[in-house]
Amino acid sequence: MFDHLNSLPADPILGLLATYRADENPNKIDLGVGVYKDEAGHTPVLQAVKQAETRLLQSEETKAYVGPAGTPGFNTAMQELVLGAGHPALVANRVRSAQTPGGCGALRVLAEFADRAKKGATIWVSDPTWANHVPLLGNAGLEIKSYPYYDRATSSLQFDAMVETLKNVGEGDLVLFHACCHNPCGADLTREQWHVLVEMAQKQGFTPFIDMAYQGFGDSLGDDAYGVRLMAESVPELLVAASCSKNFGLYRERVGMAMVVYNDAAAADKGQSQMLNVVRGNYSMPPNHGGAIVESILTDASLKANWEAELTEMRERINSLRSGVVESLAAAGAPGDFSFIQRQKGMFSFLGITPEQVQKLQQDYSIYMVDSSRISIAGLSQSNMEYFCQSVAEVLG
Ligand code: LMR
To answer: What interhelical angle do 226-234 and 191-204 show, nearest 10?
Structure first.
């Protein structure tokens, strides 16, 4: 039965990790997968997470099933983190959600949910977008089309072209936006641009679908949620996939939330029954441990303060690496203007070099990045910065 199956190439992002791990060069640098690293190259468990886990181990009394939505405490705390406590959509009882296995689980559940509402609905995604959006949304039945987003020639957002394409998108179509820290390009929408998109959604009737995988990695927890919060109070319906992988450092625990803002409370109750049915038919219910950690942090003032301080530290380190790499590339004599890296947000930027140059950096210098030249900034450090910048200068020179 399975003999005829062909083998597939490794995933373009996760596959890099295996090649990197097998590389014996002591100078190797991993700028591939989007995982935060500290100066020593480690991805530490946050202190707030450790404290929450210690408490959970002592207080947990049962491992009995929770249910397809996860716990109410997790959902309430996460809705408030994303929308802000007292948000008009929460007050109007228009919001429902489910804890999911990571942001990927949220994207998949929401895509299947949308497909139930309109079979084979079209979803517009940015060009470029995160590579895994395509299988996550497409395999659920949605038809994928793209709108222009990032201009590689100027290394910046091409908002006019984006608007030009989206102005023909109407009711029954979904449009996927990145809430902040765009993956892969790091070029984010300004507040004014969010307002333009909100007006378009109101006028044309398309349904916004926001992927929020990096809340807190751009400017702050609140600033990074500006677009989501604005959309949630301005449009009748909205889908949001939130991830706790990066901001809580819970990558392997798989914690996220699939959230829907509905027209009214009655539609919300009906819609939630469909969403929970999608969950039950996929994986029955989410794993509990990671969600319990998030709930415990968000519902305890002192743990929350510790977590926010750690999140700020991660964000500030990435931002200082962004300025550092711009300066060091110039000092190493790398041809071109890389100042856009400093203006961009979050874990990623495109270096803007060719796939052949990316290959050369990997083969000759053991520097690993995705073929598109996306670099995960947190993989840089004071100790590898010079080697990285000199290598880039040599390859480009
Ligand atoms: C990335 O883009 O590197 C991360 O979102 C991790 C992943 O699963 O691809």
So the answer is: 30
What is the bridge-based pairing of β-strands 348-350 and 374-376?
antiparallel
Cβ of 132 closer than 6 Å to ligand 1, yes or no, is: yes
The C-alpha atoms of residue 2 and residue 8 are separated, in whole angstroms, by 14
* 307 flagged as catalytic: no
How far apart (Å, rounded) are the C-alpha atoms in residues 211 and 294? 19
Q: Which of the residues 28, 37, 246, 345 is marked catalytic?
A: 246
Strand 150-151 relative to strand 156-157, pairing: antiparallel
HEC assignment per residue over 175-227: EEEECCCCCCCCCCCCHHHHHHHHHHHHHHCCEEEEEECCCCCCCCCCHHHHH
Distance 34 CA to ligand 1 centre (A): 5
Output the pLDDT for position 28. 97
Asked if 127 and 149 count as a contact pair (C-beta separation under 8 A), the reply is: yes
Residue 122 to residues 115, 157, 194, 227: CA-CA distances in angstroms? 9, 23, 21, 22
Across the chain, how many H-helices and E-strands are there?
15, 13
In angstroms, the CA 224 to CA 221 distance is 6
Is residue 131 within 8 Å of 290, Cβ to Cβ?
no
The model's pLDDT over 89-129, given as tens digits with 9 standing for 90+, comes to 999 999 999 999 999 999 999 999 999 999 999 999 999 99
378 secondary structure, DSSP code: G
Check pocket membership of 107 for ligand 1, CB cut-off 6 A: no
User: Ligand 1 centroid vs 88 CA: distance in angstroms?
Assistant: 32
- Sequence length of the chain is 397
Q: Integer distance in angstroms from the first to the last C-alpha of the chain?
A: 53
Q: State pTM to two decimals.
A: 0.97
Cα angle 278, 176, 127 (rounded to 5 degrees) comes to: 130
Check pLDDT > 90 for residue 12: no
- Is there an atom of ligand 1 within 6 Å of 370 CB? no
Instruction: Tell me which residue has its CA closest to atom 2 in ligand 1.
Output: 34
The question of whether 203 is a catalytic residue gets the answer: no
